[in-house]
Amino acid sequence: MVKSNKFSGHQNQPLTMEEESPDPPFQHTYKALFDDGGRKFENAAVPIEERDLLVIDLSRLDDGVEREECKREIAKASREWGFFQVVNHGISREILEEMRREQVKVFKMAFREKVSAELLAGSYRWGTPSANCLSQLSWSEAFHVPLADISGLRGLASLSSTMEQFATTVSNLAQKLAEILAEKMGHKSIFFKENCLPDTCYLRMNRYPPCPIASEVFGLMPHTDSDFLTILHQDEIGGLQLVKDGTWIAVKPNPEALIINIGDLFQAWSNGVYRSVEHRVVTNKLVERFSTAYFFCPSYDTMIESCVEPSIYKSFSFGEFRKQVQEDVKRFGNKIGLPRFLVGDFNYAADDD
């Protein structure tokens, strides 16, 4: 069973066709999964309903008449869907387009160059090292970069500069949305300004290569996000799906908008009022997909406690939460998350098989 996606090519040997390609060697590296009866996988390629997410015009926050209604819509979408879209969000089209151009350039580099420890501070990720079956394998690659590291990136000055611009503007948007959601819970909280700082948040550039076996594997396996908020800029290809009322739905792409989704920490902080919803990305047989995600996170030692009582979740630090998630993924192949931290006699039992 493959447990690592580290590339073992030698720098001074001639490049093979596989090494020259920008695409990770999924089928070679995870051959055991494809040969081991994994084709029983019930994939999201089965047609499902495509729906538009609610679009909220944030320019209404500057209108004395519309401001409070806009805030109510943000809170309602966070309660009922856990996802919504925003326009007039303060991030210019120029920054978004430049971010996409720079992202495409770095992903088009040869695979061997991307896995180099020197490139983007070794932030490159691909596949799922812990996968035990096809349903746990993600057919995607990413650069997962702590914002604190962006200014120190070497050799990619243009990308570094663009990432800094993007991260600065998106950070401001995340703070604004978090404050609104806290206010609608009855809290004029400075918690987010004090704990979710530029050097505790992350930027993740994603690419989903064309997948010849799109009916058998996800681009990103079903999961919830482990942060407070995620802000996503995606292209027009589509592939994002989420659970609504127990049913998977496909999100109709809207390149003009940014997608906002609630993470696990906000669900715990709000005592379950705001919902961290399971979502996934399906693969495409013919075309690649790009997206950039900003993760609004606190430091690892920040304590997450419900803002109302009685709390349905135990108090925990972000570091404790991350450690538990990593242990569960390593042991079971998938994240368990917040059910591990419920108060009372609830005892989460995971299947060891």
UniProtKB/TrEMBL annotation:
The biased composition feature labelled Polar residues covers 1-15
MF terms from GO for this chain are: gibberellin 2-beta-dioxygenase activity; metal ion binding
On the tree of life, the source organism's domain of life is: Eukaryota
Record-listed E.C. numbers: 1.14.11.13
The EC class name is: oxidoreductase
Keywords, in A-Z order: Dioxygenase, Iron, Metal-binding, Oxidoreductase
Question: Which Pfam families does the annotation name?
Answer: 2OG-FeII_Oxy, DIOX_N
Q: Where is the Fe2OG dioxygenase domain?
A: 199-298
- Name its GO BP terms in alphabetical order: gibberellin metabolic process
Q: Which residue ranges are recorded for the region named Disordered?
A: 1-27
Name the chemical reaction catalysed here. Answer: gibberellin A1 + 2-oxoglutarate + O2 = gibberellin A8 + succinate + CO2
Entry similarity comment:
Belongs to the iron/ascorbate-dependent oxidoreductase family. GA2OX subfamily.
Q: This protein is called what? A: gibberellin 2beta-dioxygenase
